[in-house]
Amino acid sequence: MSNNSLRYSKTMVVIHWLTALLVLGAWLTAEGGREIVDNPPLLHFTLGLAVLALIVPRLILRLAGPAPEATGERGWLAIVAKAGHGLLYLLMVGLPITGWYAASRMGVTVSFAGVELPALTAVVPGRPGLIAELHENAGTFILILAGLHTLMAIWHQLVLRDGTLRRMSLR
Ligand code: HEM
Ligand code: HEM
């Protein structure tokens, strides 16, 4: 039995894959610019806020429970992997909050599956602002990072054949 046969808990696995779908969905439904004031991308809000909702149990489980032993990655690659995962966690929290803030600032009411949420800031007319720009760029960045992360998973699966993907699967 190698270290890599150790798995994430079933709950972590379900949350991981659900989040992957939600992030992709949020990216696909994203819209920018002033026109969203008249036509808010409600699906984008709901999918993005679901990422934020899922990060709460995920972080609790991750911090409270024993995480599986590290993969076979050694040296700088282990550090890169850790930093990459850390950045993904940061984006999963930061993206929805900056998006919510940006919408509020533009005067767009944010709702989660039809339930209206309070505004995070006062309405400012004119350009969407710096936080909105940060949100848009971070939205592209998470997709690139998740893409690299996926490539690494495929590399582990097909080239190293070390069972890393099994750590994030239900059986
Ligand atoms: C098809 C897409 C994806 C594949 C194949 C995949 C695969 C994996 C695998 C195999 C692991 C376990 C790595 C290990 O044991 O060290 C993992 C961990 C992780 N994945 Fe993904 N993933 C995908 C998409 C995503 C997305 C979209 C996100 C977030 C936006 C994400 C965030 C994470 C994080 C944060 C971890 C580390 C978990 C922890 O140790 O706390 N993944 N992924
Ligand atoms: C993982 C979650 C999310 C991702 C990946 C994401 C991604 C993006 C991207 C890529 C854009 C730019 C679209 C374009 O310019 O064509 C965008 C715009 C926007 N998103 Fe998100 N988003 C997420 C969550 C949210 C949430 C939860 C909200 C609000 C509750 C939100 C509100 C907005 C708003 C208001 C804009 C327009 C900003 C502007 O025009 O300057 N986003 N998002």
Structural class: mainly alpha
Count of discrete alpha- or pi-helical segments spanning 4 or more residues? 5
Q: What characteristic shape results from the CA principal axes?
A: elongated
How are the strands ordered across the major sheet? 1-2
CATH architecture: Up-down Bundle
Radius of gyration, whole Å = 18 Å
Report the portion of residues in β strands: under 5%
Low-confidence stretches: 1-5
The total domain count is: 1
Q: How many E-type strands?
A: 2
Distance between the termini: 16 Å
Order of helices and strands: HHHEEHH
Query: What percent of residues adopt helix (DSSP H or I)?
Result: 55-70%
Largest sheet: 2 strands, antiparallel
List ligands, each type once: protoporphyrin IX containing FE
**Average pLDDT reading:** 92
Subcellular location: Cell membrane
GO biological process, one term: respiratory electron transport chain
Transmembrane segments: 12-30, 42-64, 76-102, 138-160
Domain Cytochrome b561 bacterial/Ni-hydrogenase: 7-168
